[in-house]
Design goal:
alpha/beta, Rossmann fold, 3 domains, 6-stranded mixed sheet, 13 strands, about 40% helix
């Protein structure tokens, strides 16, 4: 008999046992800063409490699959310990962070992003204009050009003059150089609240966004505590908080040095922090003050914010705190730079960064 056979709905196909454990393991791996042994230990404890595995597939099977699939390897070679994440795992962590934080992002053409300005560019629009010297010939609107020539010169004596030519307008495409500053001072894990793990996820998601969707953009990542230094994208999962104060000045100085080397006309700094600046370097020593807003430290920080404004480098601050004196600092800092500031919960941090990164895609003409 030809027709449809109706049966009870049994739901969508479930994830495999490996995939279920893998999602949890990736989160644990970020939380433990890339310590495979510790992450597996936590996974084993979770399995005991929540029965994540069964008789057919256990933690030992999961570890074997992780190795066979190339997500972890032995540091000293085959059969030796400890086990460490591979580059394949690092890529997977960035992709997972991108999916988790920027899940509203849809795949589009990679390479650049449009601005609201028209001019010479790569993306054609429906708008047309008269030909000007320097316009690309492949942007000529053929039908409209021939139509103009026929109207202006007649069909019998066909001619094509410069003023007959019509050109499709194109969107200018901008390229942006971004420096992402991540606070790794002790306050990022203070009072029993883990703020560094969400910050790492955001940084991994942003880096994967730029690498895959905007490959012509550049991204530099720096961390700052008592001092500031650059790290690579592959280092993000292993980022740890130290017994540091918050030297925002050192972070801004390094960010400005990195941006000076970039040739893109559009430059910006994004800073994820949960506290006020509490440290500056004076010669070879440090001046530190964790109580209130120290005027010496504050003045140095605001001066750098103003300098960034002079060279058209906006700073977007993502403050993971709402204490009144911290809000006061960010307000002063933002006014000095003419930048932006967001006071966000840990859950909303990724969405704020995504939205601001998209909005900062604009062309600046000197």
């Amino acid at each position: 008999m030809i027709g449809w056979q109706i049966s009870d709905f049994t739901g969508f196909e479930d994830e495999s046992s490996f995939e279920k454990l893998f999602k949890i393991f990736k989160d644990l791996l970020i939380h433990t800063s890339g310590d495979v042994s510790e992450a597996l230990s936590w996974l084993t404890e979770l399995d005991k409490h929540y029965k994540l595995t069964d008789d057919q597939y256990g933690i030992a099977d999961f570890i074997e699959d992780l190795t066979e699939k190339g997500y972890i390897s032995s540091k000293g070679g085959q059969g030796k310990s400890p086990q460490i994440p591979t580059s394949k795992m690092e890529l997977e962590l960035r992709r997972q962070a991108l999916d988790d934080i920027f899940d509203q992002l849809k795949k589009t053409k990679s390479g650049n992003h449009q601005t609201k300005m028209t001019g010479q560019g790569d993306e054609s629009t429906s708008e047309m204009k008269s030909y000007e010297f320097g316009d690309k010939l492949d942007s000529i609107a053929i039908s409209e050009t021939i139509k103009n020539a026929q109207i202006n010169h007649g069909i019998d004596d066909f001619q094509l003059a410069e003023n007959d030519i019509r050109i499709y307008e194109t969107f200018q495409k901008s390229q942006t150089s971004t420096v992402l500053m991540i606070d790794i001072s002790h306050s990022m894990i203070l009072y029993g609240e883990d703020r560094i793990t969400p910050a790492k996820k955001v940084a991994m998601a942003l880096s994967e966004l730029i690498i895959t969707k905007y490959p012509k953009d550049t991204l530099d990542i720096i961390v700052f505590g008592d001092d500031a230094w650059s790290i690579e994208v592959k280092d993000l999962p292993y980022l740890q908080v130290g017994p540091y104060h918050t030297n925002t000045v050192a972070g801004l100085e390094l960010a400005m040095d990195l941006l000076r080397k970039r040739k893109n006309p559009n430059k910006q700094i994004m800073m994820i922090t949960d506290g006020k600046p509490t440290c500056i370097k004076k010669g070879k020593s440090y001046y530190k003050n964790s109580f209130g807003l120290d005027r010496k430290i504050l003045n140095r920080t605001l001066a750098l914010a103003a300098n960034c404004r002079k060279i058209n480098v906006p700073i977007t601050t993502f403050m993971i705190a709402r204490d009144p004196y911290l809000v006061n600092f960010v307000d002063q800092f933002t006014k000095a730079n003419n930048g932006k500031a967001f006071y966000s919960s840990l859950e909303g941090l990724g969405e704020f960064i995504f939205m601001d990164y998209k909005q900062n895609k604009r062309n600046r003409k000197n």
